[in-house]
Amino acid sequence: MTWVFMVTFGLLCVAGLLVLVRLILGRSTMDRIVALDVFVTIVIAATCVSMGWLQDGSNIALLTAFALLAFIGTISAARLVERKEPYR
After folding, report:
1. Where are the domains of the chain?
2. Within a 10 A sphere around the Cβ of 38, how many other Cβ atoms?
3. Which pTM does this prediction carry?
4. The domain 2-84: what is its CATH number?
5. Which stretches are transmembrane (predicted)?
6. Which residue, 5, 82, 73, 6, is CA-closest to 41?
């Protein structure tokens, strides 16, 4: 079962690196906002995998609050960008 956690961590690390590249090289503000939201989701997923590996569920409330704050931040940033950038 340990190899499943290792493969999952490896895939999440690769995904995180690709998202960081998109965050740095994003052409528009919306690209960067989406990349940041995906990065937060990857961090939450990696934390969940580590909780499964260690069989410790003490951080579930913290992860839920972090996910909710990330969601609200993404919606707020998207609305702000929508008001500032013209439609294409």
Report:
1. 2-84
2. 17
3. 0.83
4. 1.10.287
5. 6-25, 34-54, 60-81
6. 73
